[in-house]
Design a protein that fits this description.
Blueprint lengths: L1 E5 L4 E4 L2 E5 H11 L4 E9 L7 E3 L6 E5 L7 H22 L4 E6 L2 H9 L8 E5 L11 H11 L7 E6 L9 E4 L21 E6 L8 H13 L4 E6 L5 H10 L6 E5 L3 H10 L2 E4 L8 H8 L3 E4 L5 H4 L7 E2 L4 H12 L2 H15 L4 H12 L1
Parallel strand pairs: 1-4, 1-7, 2-4, 4-6, 7-8, 8-9, 9-10, 11-12, 11-14, 12-13, 14-15, 15-16
Antiparallel strand pairs: 2-3, 3-5
């Protein structure tokens, strides 16, 4: 079987090796195990631009290079028009030779892929919609258009659409899906927490406005000012790092908040095991892996109710749904801290739920898609 993958996720060529975004590559390793050939249609970057990257450990049969573009200015919009025409032609050439077409959405490349796949109604196809599928969510019109095309059974034939969460009123080709980080062999006995020592919070993600890392800092700052023994560790990098460093210094939080930058999967895994709470005050998510990863090791999530997060947290029994109001959020966390039995139950509920979604289960579901 020849699998053609269309994605906005870039490849970075350096020192005769090919690199890609680490979580994406982890998933691709599983897909390529179940096909004879794997072909990519995606942009190329000259450097990683601060992205957490990993070398691709398998042979790439062919790479159809696409032009990356955005629509943030009029000039870029004009360039995007010509780039899109070129990309449409390249995508058609790749798809006509595919035994299975796999789209990664949402994104500019994903949108073009959604359009071209209409020309191949007999070819088996799948789409992984990695964003927020919630029909009520406010999203760019291009995202809404992609969702409409792939769920339209007249335009889109022979396709399975993998989305995060379960949403009423969806078409028959929409399938709830998930992602996974840990293997069954990594499962150990539930890790108990000592709530009488330093209460450790961990944030894992890109330091950008949409992830709201400053809110995580301010949340922990409120507990520190109230006399709690707390600590926050942030993993990840991004444009907000410098402003966060300045905030930490200006508010005398050097002993409380630590910025660790991008770290290995093993380092973050160890931190989950040592932490009490994993914080994700994000504006938008698909399936937030950090929530599932933290729960796997007994961390209690503190997350905004975006996308399928309410489902993941069982609407409050496996974690705290943040309101993005410091006073209200601190109050509900403080109430939780006053009840050790509830903390223990919440952590246990999260661990039991998360450990169903192992890499082995994930791989078995991917194999069903390709069969």
């Amino acid at each position: 079987m020849k699998l053609v993958i269309i994605s906005s996720a870039p490849f970075i060529y350096k020192q005769n090796c090919v690199f890609g975004y680490s979580p994406y590559i982890d998933e691709l390793i599983i897909w390529q195990k179940h096909v004879d050939q794997i072909v990519f249609c995606c942009p190329t970057w000259g450097d990683d631009r601060g992205l957490l990257v990993t070398e691709i450990p398998f042979k790439i049969e062919k790479h159809y290079q696409l032009s990356d573009f955005n629509l943030n200015t009029l000039f870029n919009g004009l360039k995007a028009f010509f780039y899109s025409l070129s990309n449409l032609f390249v995508l058609y050439q790749a798809m006509r030779k595919a035994d299975h077409i796999h789209l990664r959405c949402p994104g500019n490349i994903g949108l073009l892929g959604c359009i071209v796949q209409i020309l191949f109604p007999k070819t088996p196809k799948s789409t992984k919609y990695a964003g927020n599928w919630d029909p009520k969510a406010k999203q760019p019109w291009t995202y809404q258009l992609q969702k409409w095309i792939v769920s339209n059974s007249f335009l889109t034939r022979n396709m399975q659409v993998l989305v995060y969460g379960e949403w009423g009123g969806s078409s028959k080709n929409i399938n709830p899906f998930f992602t996974a980080t840990y293997r069954e062999a990594e499962i150990v006995s539930a890790l108990s927490r000592n709530w009488n020592n330093t209460i450790c919070f961990v944030f894992v993600g890109t330091l950008v406005i949409g992830k709201n890392p400053l809110y995580a800092v301010q949340l922990v700052e409120q507990f520190y000012k109230s006399g709690y023994d707390v600590q926050l560790t942030l993993y990840g990098d991004g444009v907000l790092r410098q402003s966060l460093e300045q905030y930490i210094v200006q508010h005398d939080l050097e002993s409380v908040v630590m910025l660790k930058g991008n770290q290995s999967k093993e380092t973050i895994k160890n931190k989950y095991q040592d932490s009490h709470f994993v914080v994700l005050p994000s504006d938008s998510e698909g399936w937030p892996k950090v929530v599932a990863e933290g729960m796997f090791w007994g961390c209690i999530p503190l997350s905004t109710p975006v996308s399928c997060v309410p489902f993941m947290l069982d609407y409050g029994s496996r974690g705290v749904l943040l309101e993005m109001d410091l006073e209200k959020d601190c109050s509900q966390i403080e109430m939780l801290l006053s009840s050790p039995s509830r903390l223990a139950m919440m952590g246990e509920n999260g661990t039991v739920w998360s450990r169903k979604y192992t890499v082995e289960f994930f791989e078995s579901e991917i194999k069903k898609i390709l069969d």
